[in-house]
Amino acid sequence: MVRAGIYVTVFAPDKDSLAVRADALWGLLTGTGAGALDARAARARGVQGPLLRATRPLGRNDAPRYTTYKMYAETVGNAWAAIVRSPGTASGVLIGRAEGDGALVHLNIADRAFKNRLIDVFGGSGQGKSFFVQKFMLPVLLRNSWATAVDTVGGYETLCAIAGGQTIQLGGPRTAAINIWDGPRATEEELAARVRFVVRAHEVLLAESGRPITGRIRSVVGQGVRAVYTACRRGETPTERRLVDWLEEQATHQEDHEDKRLFKDVAADLYPYARDGEHAALVDRPTSFGFDTRLLAFHIDPKELRPDTPIYAFVMFAMTDIADRRDALAQAWGRRAGRGTVQHLLAIDEGWNILRHEAGQDWVAGIGRTGRHSGMVPMFVSQKLSDLTSNRAAAAYFDQTSLHFIFNMHDTNDESGVDPRQWIAGKLRLTDGEAARIGTLAGKEAADKKRLEYAQMFMIRTTKTASRPVRGVVNVPSSPEEAWLFASDPDDKEYRARMVRAVAADPEHPTGEEVYQAVCLLAEGATPAEVDAARQALPPGAAASDDIDERDTATAGTGGAPWIAAR
Ligand SMILES: Nc1ncnc2c1ncn2[C@@H]1O[C@H](COP(=O)(O)OP(=O)(O)OP(=O)(O)O)[C@@H](O)[C@H]1O
Ligand SMILES: [Mg+2]
C-alpha cells in the first residue's frame, strides 16, 4: 500500500474568494463525488518554517535536502523541492523573486546543470540590463570572483569605486593605451601564440580598409610581426610604429613593383594607428593599465570610437586577449589562495561586435567548448536583435547560450524586419503567451515614486537534462542603496556626483569609502546641500567624514575598497 501526502497552497486576491476557493478544494479532497480523492484533509495555518516541519515525520526537518529548499518560497506548497517555481538555480547569488508566488530566484553560474556558462542579456533601452548586470556582479565579486566590463555609457564607475576596481577610458584625447604586442612570450609556444594573435588583430584592422585580406597580406604582416619581436628581443617594447617602419623599409628593398605596392599599402592602411595617427594614442603606446585588478571596467566613448569603425572592432578583439590574460591571472591567484576555478564575469555591452570577424568567432567558440572548465563567464548585453539575426556567428552564440535574460522588448520593428519576440520565442520554444509577455514586462514604481522598486525580466535557462528550458518572469528588486549605486540616468549620475563631491575630503579624488558613504546618504534621502551645510558647520580641522555617518565609516579600510580588500 502506498500513502501519499499532498500539500496545496491556495492563492486568492482577497479573503472572500480565498474562502470560496478553499471550500471548493476541501470538497475535492474529502468529498465522495466524481473526481474527489477521499483524502484525510487538514488545514494548516502559520508561517512556512514550522508548517513545513509539521509535515515531516515526528515534526523534524533535519534532512539537508529539505533544509536547502525550505526557504525557497513563502508558502508551504511551493517550499516542496519538486514544485519550486523559481527559474533560478538551487543556490547562488539572489537575483530577484519569481513573479506570482514570489519564490526567491538564485543564480549560481557554476551550477552543474548548465551546458556552458554563456549568458546573454537582451532588452530595450533603459529597461534594466546594465543595472541587473551590476547587481549580479557585486555579490559575485564579494565571493572572490573577478569581473571585466565593457560599456559605452560609463555606468560602472561607482561600482568600481566601492569595489576597488579600476575604470579605463578608451577613445578621445585622454584615452588609455592597449598595446596588443606586449603579451606573454617567454617560451616558443607563447611567442607563436602571440604572433598569431597580433596578426589576427591586424586582420581586424585591415579588414575594413576595403582591401580583401589575401594570403599574401597575411604572410607579409606575419613576417613583419616576427621581425618586430626579433628586433625587440633584448627587452625593447614592441609597438605598432615598429611594424609600420619595417613595412616601409621592406618596400624600399622590393624589386618587383607589385610587391613594393603591397608593402606600402599595408603600411599606409596602418597609419591611423601608429606614430601620430588618429588612434595612435590608443594603439601605439605601452599598455597604460594593469591587468590584475579584480574588477576592471572599460568605458568606450561612443563619440570617439564609433561601433562601425575598424578601431572599434579592434578594441573589441583586443578585449578577448585582455579577458584571456586576466583569466589566467585570476586562475593563478585562485591557485595561490588554494581555491578551485575562479569565476571571471566578462560583461560586454554590444559584445556581438566581437563576433564580426572570424578571429572573434573562434575565440567565442573556444569558450563555448571549454565550458565549465574555464572560469570565464561571458555576458553579452544588447538592445538590438538585428545583431543576432544579421550575423550567423552571433545567432550560433545565442543558440548555445545556457542563460538568457530578456527585458522588455516592446518595439517589434527591429532593423532586420524580424519581430524580435517571435524570433526569440521560436529559438527558445516559448509559447505564444510567453512571447507576448516579453512585450509587457514592466518595472514597478516604489512608493516614494522616485525610483523603481523592481525591474522585470524573463529568465530562461536551458539545462543538460530538461527538454524545454526552465523559465519564468523574475522581478529584479533594488534596495535604495543599489538604486543609487547603479543608476545610469544622466540626472541621477549628476546628483550622485554632487553628493560625492559634498562628502569627499578631496572632491577631485574621492576614495571608495567616500563614494559608498555618498550612496548611503542618498539612499537615506539626504541631499548634497544638507551635507554641504553640515560640513560648513564643522569646526575647522575636523574631518567631515566623522560626522556624516558613523556606521559607514566603520566599514572603511585604508585602501579604496572597503568591501573587497586586496588579498
Ligand atoms: N532592477 C531595478 N530596480 C530599480 N531601478 C532600476 C532597475 N533596473 C533599472 N532601473 C532604473 O532604470 C535605469 C536604466 O536602467 P539600465 O541602465 O540598466 O538600462 P539598460 O537596459 O542598460 O539601457 P541601455 O540599453 O540604454 O544601456 C537605471 O538607471 C535605474 O534608474
Ligand atoms: Mg545599459
Tell me the major beta sheet: 12 strands, mixed
What characteristic shape results from the CA principal axes?
A: globular
- Backbone CA Rg: 28 Å
* Quaternary structure state of the chains depicted: single chain
- Tell me the strand percentage band: 5-15%
Query: Could you give the count of β-strands?
Result: 12
User: Residue share in helices?
Assistant: 40-55%
Bound molecules: adenosine-5'-triphosphate, magnesium ion
Task: Explain this structure.
The chain has helices at 15-30, 48-54, 64-70, 76-79, 129-142, 157-162, 188-207, 215-231, 240-253, 257-269, 280-283, 310-336, 358-370, 386-389, 392-400, 420-428, 432-438, 480-486, 490-503, 512-523, 528-536, 544-548, 550-553, and strands spanning 93-98, 104-107, 119-122, 146-151, 166-170, 295-300, 344-349, 376-382, 403-406, 444-445, 452-461, 470-477. With 567 residues, the protein is α/β, with parallel strands linked by helices. Among the domains are: 1-70, no CATH class; 188-273, no CATH class; 489-567, no CATH class. Strands 1, 2, 3, 4, 5, 6, 7, 8, 9, 10, 11 and 12 form a twelve-stranded mixed sheet that branches. Strand 7, helix 13 (358-370) and strand 8 (376-382) form a beta-alpha-beta unit. It is globular, with a radius of gyration of 28 Å. The structure holds adenosine-5'-triphosphate and magnesium ion.
Question: How would you summarize what this structure contains?
Answer:
Helix content is 43%, strand content 12%.
Write the layout of secondary structure elements.
Elements: H1 15-30, H2 48-54, H3 64-70, H4 76-79, E1 93-98, E2 104-107, E3 119-122, H5 129-142, E4 146-151, H6 157-162, E5 166-170, H7 188-207, H8 215-231, H9 240-253, H10 257-269, H11 280-283, E6 295-300, H12 310-336, E7 344-349, H13 358-370, E8 376-382, H14 386-389, H15 392-400, E9 403-406, H16 420-428, H17 432-438, E10 444-445, E11 452-461, E12 470-477, H18 480-486, H19 490-503, H20 512-523, H21 528-536, H22 544-548, H23 550-553
Parallel strand pairs: 3-8, 3-9, 4-6, 4-7, 5-6, 7-8
Antiparallel strand pairs: 1-2, 1-12, 9-11, 10-11, 11-12
